[in-house]
């Protein structure tokens, strides 16, 4: 007999789908250039193109933090509360 741990296939759960969406949303927003390739509306004199991208830096940070917290909670639940 082998001492290797049992390998289980990955499980898709609603929490993991939310995690994936949190991590995927910034990529989709930045790759869809046509949605923000314009000057107007300006915000305190800054063209839309620039402030939209800077806003996504903050949004991406928040979504990554949410995804990380959900992942930690999911891992604790799967491994019986260890850690």
From TrEMBL:
It comes from the Bacteria. The keyword ATP-binding does not apply. Keywords: Membrane, Transmembrane, Transmembrane helix. The chain crosses the membrane at residues 17-37, 49-71. Signal peptide: none annotated. It holds the Pfam family DUF3311. PANTHER family: BSL5891 PROTEIN. This is DUF3311 domain-containing protein.
């Amino acid at each position: 007999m082998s001492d290797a741990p049992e390998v289980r296939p990955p499980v898709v759960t609603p929490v993991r789908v939310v995690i994936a969406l949190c991590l995927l949303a910034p990529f989709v927003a930045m790759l869809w250039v046509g949605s923000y390739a314009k000057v107007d509306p300006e915000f305190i004199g800054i063209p839309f193109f620039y402030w939209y991208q800077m806003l996504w830096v903050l949004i991406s940070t928040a979504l990554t933090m949410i995804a990380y917290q959900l992942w930690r909670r999911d891992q604790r639940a799967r491994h019986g509360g260890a850690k």
